[in-house]
Design goal:
This protein is an alpha/beta fold. It is about 45% helix and about 15% strand. It has a domain of about 140 residues: Rossmann fold.
Length: about 280
């Protein structure tokens, strides 16, 4: 059985390749679809087949997916173009005769106000309409998303946030990668939508305490309203678009968009999800 991944040189894709190998999939059965062959040498060193095709290039993608049985479509980062780019992979998968497609989506993509959700919800609709067998992997946030916050807290002793009492049910990126590898390897996953998250939904006050444990010194949680947070990020020199993203995301968190801690991820991987402190480096 041939298993392919798009975005295979990225953080999630490369971890999924490793998880497949660790779980017994032969390297010769794994196809890494990459945009930049120059970044793929670590995958080649593992014995994985590397094929070059970028999102948006349907003929190249169709050729790259020739003979593939099961495919992981790792969502692309290009906001505004993401749906069309994802659609090119879905179309190519259909043309190449791929038997099953899994897609990394966002939490409750079809019903949430989360700012990144619309592209994911639209992609899910394309998958449902494609006729392909599929599974939707709705990944909550990664612990690793907060490593920049940890670095800043180490320098300042503070964790400012406008997320209020909102909670985040994050898990380690490797946990999500392991779940993807399990779904790709086969089993009763067709037509299923998994709401994948960590076992614990934490507040930013709890995040600050965990950062203090990791760093070995207290970190002060500084609650801000959105206007004050915007002003602080502006003073720190952040780009206006990034400030808009961060403050809107934290408004979403305050409203509960990332708070749903389910047992879907732990159930797939057969163990508790990685604790936040471990994900931040302890």
């Amino acid at each position: 059985m041939s298993i392919a991944l798009t975005g295979a040189t990225g953080a999630l894709g490369s971890l999924t390749v490793k998880a497949l190998l660790q779980r017994g999939t032969s390297a010769s059965d794994i196809v890494a679809v990459v945009r930049d062959d120059g970044r793929a040498q670590p995958l080649k060193d593992l014995g994985v087949s590397v094929r070059v095709a970028a999102y948006g290039e349907v003929p190249a993608l169709t050729e790259a997916l020739d003979g593939v049985d099961r495919l992981l479509l790792v969502s692309g980062p290009e906001s505004g173009e993401r749906v069309a780019l994802h659609g090119s992979v879905i179309a190519a998968a259909g043309q190449a005769g791929v038997g099953f497609l899994a897609y990394t989506s966002a939490p409750h993509a079809d019903s949430t106000q989360l700012l990144v959700a619309p592209d994911h919800a639209a992609t899910e609709k394309l998958i449902h309409a494609s006729g392909l067998a599929f599974s939707i992997l709705r990944n909550n946030w990664y612990h690793e998303n907060y490593l920049p916050h940890l670095k800043s807290a180490a320098a300042t002793g503070k964790l400012p946030s406008s997320a209020g009492a909102g909670r985040v049910a994050s898990a380690a990126r490797a946990d999500y990668a392991e779940a993807a590898a399990i779904v790709l390897a086969g089993g009763d996953h067709d037509g299923r939508t998994y709401e994948l998250s960590g076992d614990v939904a934490w507040t930013f006050s709890e995040l600050a305490a965990t950062m203090g444990d990791v760093l070995g010194r207290p970190i002060e949680y500084v609650p801000l309203d959105r206007a004050a947070h915007t002003a602080a990020l502006t003073a720190a020199g952040l780009d206006a678009r990034l400030i808009q993203f961060v403050t809107q995301l934290e408004s979403n968190i305050a409203a509960g968009a990332l708070a749903d801690a389910t047992n879907h991820l732990a159930g797939l991987i057969g163990r508790p999800t990685t604790p936040l402190a471990e994900g931040l480096g302890r």
